[in-house]
Specification:
Chain lengths: 155, 537
């Protein structure tokens, strides 16, 4: 079980590193790490938040590997958009866009032309659809089963 | 006439006070007066702040991450940053209850317009049709206020709905996105005007394109939302600073006005204030009182005063606000392009929609979202977050937002009243009740359909389901509860905004507006306040 008590700073640091690699293909700076930890101490959504069992499942499964992360995130975006996993990813994104050494990664286009951008967009949407289809086969039954289980405190 | 006591330091209060001071009157301003923090690194642009501030996350997200936007039902594309939280700070024991309305108050020096986006839109004769005066009567005051605050703009297609007054500064440099939209519109003007009843042109904004004493020209740092560091974007606290130059001006801060007291002969003799620091109450004698606390607070003070004088409980009718709808769009010609974050951040273009009969339907502000916080936009994309980040990078230069404003009119079911005083409080809690007009849905439907068509014609895509109807109260263009009336009936004011209930009371804010056009009212609040000071004193 992942709770406020069991997720210590080492666990949050590992989580932050994995999320940062997932979002921007880069290691977080010491400043980003410190801010991610601080948010878990001061923001009410992360301090003493009540976690539903499916939230816990997403937080366990997502950080498993580089393959599971986009699959779990794709599923969460559509079927659990207010899950703790999404909240943590958005928190880190907000920190990254405000921090030296990472905000630049959100500034420049990935494509070199308009046509290239449209091709990339189509490819990325197809990839997302694939991840969503795969993850739905596994996670939809899990979510339905866990709907009946009461939640726990999380920090 | 003696000393004039002004309650509130918002857009109306400071221009009313300055006009009086210029005429040699003695002015006392009573205000709560929360102060802002000074802006950091005055010469840094937006990315410079991220790179050079010691703790940029605290600056951009707040010490408690209070401006982090997490997934929520009530999505907003623009949140207020930590540097503006002082504008909305709510003192203890000043709460209200509301139904169908999300009230926003400000107790900051300069009031709500400390957080405005600088839109300056004079009312036309059509807008003023229910006012006891026309544009020609207000024009000298629009010009005077424009001289004071610095307004840039030009005479273009929007002049048909935004009359042109004196003292306009040259417009700001257009960002590439806005320039492209305007060029496409100009190439197809007749289609937009004749088929869609749509007019596009330059926004008028209270931002300097020419240097003024104590303020610098806009240098395109991209920091408008976080607070202009060089004073190019006007805020009412600047006019308050001008008031302090007059020896006959006194400012009484940390004073929340509970009510006024009358002597039984329709004359106000004093106001009761409460210090928010110590809680101590004080009676301040007044000779002439001007309420400029904003419609909600002015209404509360007025009602509490009636209750105190033993009048039967009353309610004020006719509360108005502009409904706003946010419509994000993607300019397909700019997908994959790079952008510069060092640019003017607020709206540079405005749009006017006319109904088939030629009357005003809606007014919109067009903003290129280049320097808006990214994470709220990325989080709304219907894909996983990594994909959303990559897509966002390719479409960032192409993102834009239209903020459509709709008019409102006085109705008897939109009211402000007071709960009976309890909990040992001397003043009751305001109760606000609002119901939208019955024709609102059809007007919004027509305006959104036409705006989508116009955007398509400009080469832009509006993502399906992305229109966001903001809750009533969000635009903070409140007005209408003690309207101007040429007939001396109770709970109204004369055309020069002297109360018909108390002979030495003036109401100089939006409370007196008998109609609310589909426009930002701040410029008209300032001009009307200057008009009252000129005609009544």
């Amino acid at each position: 079980m992942i709770t406020a008590q069991s997720m210590n700073s080492d666990g949050l640091e590992r989580q932050c590193r994995l999320f940062s690699r997932y979002l921007l293909d880069r290691e977080p700076t010491a400043y980003v790490l410190s801010q991610y930890l601080r948010a878990h101490q001061v923001h009410p959504e992360f301090v003493n938040a009540r976690l539903k069992p499916f939230d816990e499942a997403l937080l366990r499964l997502g950080p498993g590997s580089r393959l599971t992360m986009p699959m779990v995130d794709a599923y969460a975006r559509i079927f659990a958009p207010r899950s703790m996993l999404r909240k943590k990813l958005i928190l880190l994104l907000a920190i990254l866009e405000s921090s030296p050494g990472s905000f630049e990664s959100l500034e420049s286009p990935t494509a070199t032309s308009r046509v290239g951008a449209y091709i990339s967009l189509a490819a990325r949407c197809a990839r997302f659809a694939g991840f969503l289809a795969l993850s739905s086969m596994v996670l939809l039954p899990v979510q339905l089963v866990l709907l009946a289980v009461p939640g726990r405190r999380h920090g | 006439m003696g000393r004039i006591t002004v309650v509130g330091s918002g857009a109306s209060g400071v221009h009313f006070a300055l006009s009086l001071l210029e005429r040699g009157h003695e002015v006392q301003m009573v205000d709560v007066g929360y102060d802002p923090q000074p802006p950091p690194l005055l010469r840094a642009d937006l990315n410079g702040l991220k790179a050079e501030l010691e703790d940029p996350v605290e600056y951009f997200l707040g010490s408690d991450f209070e401006t982090l936007v997490l997934p929520d039902e009530d999505k907003e594309y623009y949140g207020f940053p930590p540097s503006k939280t002082y504008v909305f700070r709510q003192p203890e024991n000043t709460d209200s209850r509301a139904e169908g309305f999300s009230p926003i108050y400000s107790y900051a020096k300069g009031g709500l317009a400390q957080a405005w986006t600088g839109g300056v839109y004079p009312f036309s004769d059509e807008d003023l049709s229910e006012f006891p005066f026309g544009y020609v009567d207000l024009e000298p005051y629009y010009s005077e206020v424009a001289r004071r605050i610095g307004v840039c703009g030009t005479e273009d297609d929007l002049a048909r709905v935004m009359p042109v007054h004196e003292h306009l500064l040259p417009p700001l440099d257009l960002d590439p996105h806005s320039r492209l939209l305007l060029r496409k519109y100009s190439a197809q003007r007749s289609h937009f005007n004749e088929k869609l009843g749509c007019y596009l042109g330059r926004s008028r904004v209270a931002t300097l394109s020419e240097k003024r004493e104590g303020r610098e020209v806009c240098d395109y740092l991209g920091r408008c939302l976080w607070g202009c560091p060089v004073g190019a974007l006007y805020t009412p606290s600047m006019t308050l600073e001008d008031c302090f130059r007059y020896p006959q001006f006194t400012y009484v801060g940390d004073s929340w006005v509970e009510c006024f007291s009358s002597n039984g002969m329709r004359r106000i003799s004093s106001i009761t204030t409460r210090s928010l620091g110590s809680g101590r109450r004080e009676q301040i004698p007044v000779e002439t009182l001007a309420l400029a606390a904003g419609t909600l607070s002015t209404s509360r003070i007025f009602l509490a005063s009636l209750v105190r004088s033993g009048t039967e409980p009353v309610l004020l009718e006719g509360l108005m606000d502009n409904r706003q709808v946010l419509l994000p769009f993607l300019n397909l010609a700019l997908v994959g392009k790079s952008y510069s974050p060092a640019s003017y951040q607020y709206h540079q273009l405005a749009i006017a929609l006319e109904s088939e009969g030629g009357s005003s339907l809606a007014h919109g502000l067009v903003t290129a979202l280049t320097t808006a916080p990214s994470h709220p936009i990325i989080a709304t994309m219907p894909v996983d977050l990594r994909t959303a980040v990559l897509v966002f990078r390719d479409i960032r230069a192409a993102l834009g937002l239209v903020n459509l404003n709709f008019h409102d009119y006085r109705r008897s079911d939109c009211t402000i009243s007071l709960m009976p005083a309890d909990d040992g409080r001397k003043a009751g809690v305001p109760i606000i009740s609002y119901s939208p007009p019955t024709d609102e849905g059809s007007r919004m439907h027509v305006a959104l359909r036409r705006t989508r068509k116009a955007l398509r014609r400009l080469g832009c895509l509006v993502p399906p389901g992305s229109a966001h109807v903001r809750p009533m109260g969000a635009s903070v263009h409140y007005a209408g509860t003690i309207p101007m009336s040429e007939k001396p009936v109770p709970l109204t004011v004369s055309p020069i905004c002297r109360s018909h209930d108390f002979e030495n009371l003036f109401v100089v804010d939006g409370t007196t507006f008998p109609f609310l056009p589909a426009k930002n009212i701040t410029f008209t609040l300032m001009a009307n306040a200057a008009r009252i000071a000129d005609l009544a004193f």
